[in-house]
Amino acid sequence: MNTARLATSLILRGASRSTLPGTARQIRVLPRARIPAPPALLASPQFRPYSEVPKASKIYFFEDVQAHLSNPSPDRILIDTREPSELQTTGTIPGSINIPITTKPDSFFITAEEFEDRMGFERPGKEKEVVFYCKAGVRSRAAAELARQAGWEKVGEYSGSWLDWEKRGGEKEPVIVRV
């Protein structure tokens, strides 16, 4: 061990021991001085204060999804983010498309052509509203955030997801396995 490391080690060991046995060291944290931002910076369109909250998804409930199914809009797309094996055992909400977020998290960041090659269908346009659901709402939240990062502005989440849909007796569509 070189002398600088040895000296540092000894100093740190000595500093960590209290002179009184059984007493803990106390650390006093001083408040930080707040420095206000200059007015010119506040007027700048690039200024983003720490309190700025990212845009949240629109939250959908069972009744909202049912209303969409009874009166579908071409500008709103339901996206199931579960894995294909899960869909085969449970089915899916009628009219939804499957974009598995766990195995294909880059789906919203690749080109439209590459998306179509991988998934077998056209990627939803950025002008459309995309509403995500999964089994319990966790993966759908992650997918919604990824879609926002990739440039989609109209993003929604069915937070109850499949468990809520199934519990309330929502209509199921079987999944056909393509070989």
Automatic annotation (TrEMBL):
It comes from the Eukaryota. Gene3D superfamilies: Rhodanese-like domain. GO terms for cellular component: mitochondrion. This is Rhodanese-like protein. Residues 72-174 form the Rhodanese domain. The lineage of its organism: Eukaryota, Fungi, Dikarya, Ascomycota, Pezizomycotina. GO terms for molecular function: thiosulfate-cyanide sulfurtransferase activity. It holds the Pfam family Rhodanese. It comes from Hyaloscypha variabilis (strain UAMH 11265 / GT02V1 / F) (Meliniomyces variabilis). SMART domains: RHOD.
